[in-house]
C-alpha cells in the first residue's frame, strides 16, 4: 500500500497536448544526423551501418576471443539471423549501429548505441553501448577511444543523462580501456541466458 502522500490522485495532472508535445520532442531526437567524429587515424571515417556492412560486422564479432564461440555466418541460416536483426535495428529510431571505415573502404570497427528512455533519475534518457569491436590490425592506435568518445558525444547531443555498458569479466584489457575513458565500475552487471 502506498503512503497517502504518493497516490496517483495527488500527482500533478499532465494535459494531453502537453504530453503530446513532449513525446514528439523526445521521439524526434534519434532521427537527427550523427555527431561529427574527429579522427586521429587518417582516412578512418565513422558512419551509420548499411545492409552491405553486415557481413563485415559479423566477421568482426566472430574474430574475437568470446565472439568466436557464439558468432559467425556459418551453419544453415548463414547470415539470416544477422540480416533479420539488422532490419529490426533499422526500423527502430532508438538504435544506432555504426561502422568505422578504413582507408581501403573496408569496415575496421563497429559499435551499437541504443537510446533507452525511463522514468528513473527524473526521466533520464540513457545510452547503452554494445558490441564494440576494432579490427585486429587497427588496434592500439586510438581508434577504439575515438569511437567511444564519439558515442559519448552523440549521447550527450541527444540529451542522455548517462552512458552505460557492460563488459565480460574475462575482458580485462577492455575494462582498462573503458576506465581510461572515464567509465566507472559502479554496478554489478547481471545476465540471464534465455
Ligand atoms: C577494446 C577495443 C575496442 C579497443 O580498441 P583500440 O582501437 O585498440 O583502442 P585504443 O587504441 O583506443 O586503446 C588501447 C587500449 O585498448 C585496450 N586493448 C588493447 N587491446 C585489446 C584487446 N585485444 N582486447 C580488449 N582491449 C584491448 C587496452 O586497454 C589498451 O590500452 P593499453 O595501451 O593501456 O593497454 C579493441 O581492442 C577490441 O575490439 N577488442 C576486442 C573486443 C572487445 O574486447 N570489445 C569490448 C567489448 S565490451
What does this structure look like?
The protein is α+β, with helices and mostly antiparallel strands. It has one domain (36-180): Gcn5-related N-acetyltransferase (GNAT) (Aminopeptidase, 3-Layer(aba) Sandwich). It is 32% helix and 19% strand. It contains six helices and five strands, in the order αβααββαβαβα. It has a five-stranded mixed beta sheet, sandwiched between helices. β4, α5 and β5 (160-164) form a beta-alpha-beta unit. The chain is globular and about 55 Å long. The relative contact order is 0.14. Mean pLDDT is 85; it is low at 1-6 and 26-30. Residues 64, 132-134, 139-145, 167, 171, 173-174, 176-177 line the site of coenzyme A.
Summarize the structure.
The protein is built from 6 helices and 5 strands; from the N terminus they run αβααββαβαβα. It is of the alpha+beta class and 194 residues long. β4, α5 and β5 form a beta-alpha-beta unit.
Structural category: alpha+beta
For the record, the CATH architecture stands as: 3-Layer(aba) Sandwich
Distinct helical segment count: 6
How are strands sequenced across the largest beta sheet?
A: 1-2-3-4-5
The total count of strands amounts to 5
| β-sheet strand percentage | 15-25%
What is the succession of H and E elements? HEHHEEHEHEH
The outline comes out as globular
Radius of gyration: 19 Å
What oligomerization state is this entry in? single chain
**CATH-derived topology:** Aminopeptidase
Rounded mean pLDDT is: 85
CATH class: Alpha Beta
Distinct bound molecules: coenzyme A
CATH homologous superfamily placement: Gcn5-related N-acetyltransferase (GNAT)
**How far apart are the first and last residues' alpha carbons, in Å?**
33 Å
Main sheet record: 5 strands, mixed
Number of domains: 1
Low-confidence stretches: 1-6, 26-30
Helix share of residues? 25-40%
Amino acid at each position: 500500500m502506498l503512503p497517502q502522500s504518493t497516490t496517483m490522485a495527488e500527482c500533478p495532472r499532465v494535459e494531453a497536448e502537453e504530453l503530446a508535445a513532449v513525446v514528439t520532442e523526445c521521439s524526434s531526437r534519434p532521427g537527427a544526423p550523427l555527431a561529427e567524429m574527429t579522427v586521429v587515424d587518417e582516412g578512418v571515417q565513422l558512419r551509420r551501418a548499411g545492409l552491405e556492412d553486415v557481413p563485415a560486422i559479423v566477421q568482426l564479432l566472430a574474430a574475437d576471443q568470446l565472439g568466436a564461440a557464439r558468432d559467425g555466418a556459418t551453419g544453415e541460416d548463414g547470415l539470416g539471423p544477422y540480416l533479420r536483426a539488422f532490419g529490426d535495428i533499422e526500423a527502430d529510431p532508438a538504435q544506432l549501429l555504426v561502422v568505422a571505415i578504413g582507408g581501403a573502404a573496408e569496415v575496421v570497427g563497429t559499435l551499437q548505441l541504443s537510446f533507452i528512455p525511463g522514468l528513473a533519475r527524473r526521466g533520464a534518457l540513457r545510452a547503452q553501448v554494445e558490441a564494440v569491436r576494432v579490427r585486429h590490425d587497427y588496434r592500439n592506435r586510438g581508434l577504439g577511444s575515438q569511437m567511444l568518445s564519439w558515442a559519448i558525444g552523440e549521447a550527450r547531443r541527444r540529451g542522455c543523462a548517462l552512458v552505460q555498458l557492460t563488459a565480460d569479466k574475462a575482458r580485462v584489457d577492455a575494462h582498462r580501456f573503458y576506465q581510461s575513458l572515464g567509465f566507472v565500475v559502479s554496478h554489478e552487471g547481471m545476465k540471464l541466458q534465455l
